[in-house]
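Quick one - inputs below.
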Amino acid sequence: MNFNAMSIPMEHIVMMIVILLTIVVIVLLKRVKGFIEEESIAIPTLVSPVFKIIKLMFFKVAISIETILVTIAVLLIAFTVGYVATYTYSYTTIDAINIPYSYSILLVSNSYVNQVEELLINATIPLDCIRILQVFREIPIKSGRGASYLLPLLIECNVHSIERSNNILIQLCKYVKNLTKDNVLIDISNRDIEGTINVDGAKLSVIKVNISEYLSIQLLPGIPLTHTIGVMGGSTITASPSTITVIPYSKDFYEIICKNECNVKTFFIITSQIPDGIKDSIVKTGLRYFEIVALRRNNSIDIYSRSLVPSAKTILGITSSILISLIFSISISGGLAEKVIRISEKLSLMGVTYDIIIASVSIAITSIFAILITPLLIILISLGAMVSVSMLSYILSATATNFLLTYKVSRKLKLRGYRVLSKPFLSINTPGQIDSGYFKQIVQKLFALDDIFMLSEVEVLRGSEGYNEIRIELIYRKSFATIVTVEVYEEKGKDVWSYTINVDVWSIEELSKYEQSKIASLALSKVQGALMQCITRF
Amino acid sequence: MHYKILMKTAKYSVTCNGFSYVLLYTLSLTLYITICFSEIALFISLLLSIMMLYASLLSDRLSIAQLINAYSIVGLKRKEIVASFYIFANTRVLVIAIAFLVAYPSIVIAFLTLSNTFIALVYYFTFRRV
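Output:
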């Protein structure tokens, strides 16, 4: 881990100071400005009530501990993923039984690459390497038979043991090493040129050798040693060996040939054996300068290209980050839903529908994530982490979290919602008064065998005006310490007796309103049954 | 009696909703630390684990309140109630600690210390007055 990267750069400090100074100046200006004598008349602004509701929901959602936890978790994970993400170079392996073993590593570039030997290879190990430059510039030749051209192939050999090797490229080097500065090689099949050629003012003497067998080899399928003129039907057309001139590489001569701009293809070939440990570093450095790096194995060639693909590690990291943020949001959504439901119950009285509440929750979560993207970016860029992977992870987890939280909240809202259940209450009218003693007996008989409620107490109280008041206390069996109190009030109208049943549920447990009202309705139905039994006795 | 309380609380902690989230989290955290191993990832996963612990306690807030109510009605002393809350939370801490044990065993003690300090804070600020 690089701790140096964590120190705050000087530019940031300067920027902070400038911002602080600006704020101070603005505050001072406001104070110094003084007062304007005539007060401006306030123009009434029209604010949509929906906007106000969204604002209210936004603050309720944004300031809740649940949202803060989720956002911090998503931020932290995104940051880490960016920090540990790695890439690998894309590569393929091809079958190379038909390609003669002429190199251990081949680097190909479509431009001129100079002096990379020191970067590629550790100086302590002397390595044999060959550099070949295919210069795509025709050198015009005038001869007795008419005008023709030559394509230059610049070769530089750094090979130590030429004599012993039977490598085809090293054998080509044998010829190149023997050449002096003013000599060029031309294949024996070229009969047009004799003596000397004139390249931009430099006179070069021609040596004719049979080099066609060396020039016709393929380095990789589709990449020959000689110049590729074109491609037809999937096969490459190469320049014939007779039009090629082999010139020993020197920087001066290269500049003579390529005065302004010319197309050059660089091959850097390492012929000596390389230990496996160094291969990776050669591929890594090589791809900075070359388009293709090919590693030769016994019967196959690994070809690395410059395009980067995220490694399996990165993909799994992103996946697990999304998983973690989803788990966070699932575990937290319950609490958030409770908070939203608490306000939505009040809002529902003003006629706000589900959809507006859910939409505003979604907007709130989205905007929190959108706002926090800026500090994340600043931190990531200042630490030099991989911003793209971080952003990908952040956006994916934020979307997933938003979706899940909104879904959970909307589900909870619809399930138990703000449908305010009416308090269990019942009024029964009869022509005659019921016998309170008989009612007591019936209640005792009814609840003796009941499997939902257990009778705790039943008492008949006589009020001052002669009316009875019956109080029944029941224990709900299915839950822990839940008591239901049923009160039956007796009243007399003109010529009817009216009995009003009120039910109250009291519990140690944190029962929801829904559960409470269900228990109360159950108790109400039982007591109503008992009352009806008394009435129908007449 | 104490043994019975311990077992009942641990069992209750496992059956509550938040435990399944902790279990899922532990699985994905194990995956995460073993794959993306670095000092920063370890430090952040330590923070995340404590946050996850808090999240799981938040999701079981009603159940914990009920547990504390029930214990106080049964007649447990205040100290015993605090201890039972510790057992409730530590059942989850132990599950998360498995992830660290798999990936980086030497950090487990740091995690246990940190999370237990955090549990004390949570009890003090959230459940003390229940």
